[in-house]
Write a structure and sequence with these properties.
- The protein is built from 3 helices and 20 strands.
- With 311 residues, it is mostly beta strands.
- The strands form 4 sheets. It has a 7-stranded mixed barrel. The protein has a 6-stranded antiparallel sheet with strand order 7-6-9-4-1-11, with no helix packed on it. Strands 2-3-10-5-8 form a 5-stranded antiparallel sheet, covered by helices on one side.
- Strand 6 and strand 7 form a beta hairpin.
- The radius of gyration is 20 Å and the shape is globular.
Length: 311
């Protein structure tokens, strides 16, 4: 079984749960940026999603940036579309039947049918999972595309044929009440953070990041990292000047997806799945993967507010 790429859209990548255990060699985790949506898509089509990604990267799916993906099924397939809110259209070529399909539901495609993903109304990344998973070759234990080092499959191109694995028995489907609340351009999204090891270097500690203070997602953002700018005209959130000289000579420390680094100019960077595995900037906070998923869907210009959590 396979699917054919008719149009990859702005950018479509193959992603699974990512590469683990290789950070000491400088290899990023990669994998789905919005892991909540990736997981839901695969559970909907019956793919087994492991709890322990250290031993199993899980099923590979297609991560679509800003929509535009068009695929054709060469055999009967079951697919699901999750993540950014997009219009989904199915076209049965033989019957010349065009129909709208729902997100977050199982969709049956017959041989020759086409699936069209439109432009998102809200959010950035859409996930298309197929029963059996995308069966491209593993590279360093994962089928994920690393956009920084170009490890893994190349970004999808028109005409490419993707093999599909054998479908397996269905696993439990995620509770629909756990669907990700997508950040919008007209409201402030709340993101939970835990204090990082260097939070004491901020003049006001964790309070410099949280409370009523808000942050804007910068256009200078990617799968490597999400850059945030302050919305207040003060020095809150920046590293105290007295310690900057000392920080400039300190050794780099390990970083992981969700690490929040404070830059000298007062801006923040949230390390993404293709981000560096070490860094010299202070680690002032950490996000868990559920809240990384929220940030992954935040468009440039979106407003975020941090809320401290002890969970």
């Amino acid at each position: 079984m396979s699917i054919k790429i008719l149009n990859p859209g702005v950018r479509s990548l193959i992603q699974d749960g990512g590469r683990f255990g290789l950070a000491r060699y400088g290899v990023p985790r990669s994998g789905a940026f919005d892991r909540m949506s990736w997981r839901l898509a695969n559970e909907l089509v019956g793919n087994n999603v492991p709890d322990d990604y250290a031993t199993d990267a899980g099923p590979a799916s297609i991560e679509v940036l800003l929509g535009g993906l068009r695929i054709e099924a060469t055999r009967d397939l079951v697919v699901a579309v999750t993540g950014a809110d997009v219009p989904v259209t199915c076209l049965d070529v033989d019957a010349d039947d065009k129909r709208e399909a729902a997100m977050n539901e199982r969709i049956t495609l017959t041989a020759g049918s086409r699936l069209h993903i439109g432009s998102p109304k809200v959010g950035l990344h859409t996930y298309v999972a197929v029963s059996g998973g995308i069966a491209v070759d593993y590279v360093l234990g994962s089928r994920s595309t690393d956009t920084t080092s170009t490890i893994g499959p190349h970004p999808l191109e028109k005409g490419r044929i993707l093999p599909v694995g054998d479908a397996r028995p269905s696993s439990p489907v995620m509770d629909q009440t756990e669907l990700l609340e997508l950040p919008t351009m007209t409201s402030t999204a709340t993101v939970a953070v835990r204090p990082g090891p260097d939070v004491g270097l901020l003049s006001g500690g964790i309070d410099d990041l949280t409370g009523t203070r808000t942050w804007t997602v910068s256009p200078v953002s990617s799968r490597s990292g999400i850059r945030l700018t302050r919305n207040e005209n003060d020095s809150s959130g920046s590293v105290d000047r007295n310690v900057r000289a000392r920080l400039s000579s300190r050794e780099s420390v390990p970083t992981t997806v969700g690490t929040v680094q404070a830059l000298p100019d007062g801006e923040l960077v949230i390390v993404g799945p293709d981000g560096p595995t070490t860094g010299g900037y202070p680690v002032v906070a950490v996000l868990d993967w559920q809240h990384v998923s929220i940030v992954a869907q935040a468009r440039p210009g979106s407003i975020l507010r941090f809320e401290e959590t002890t969970r």
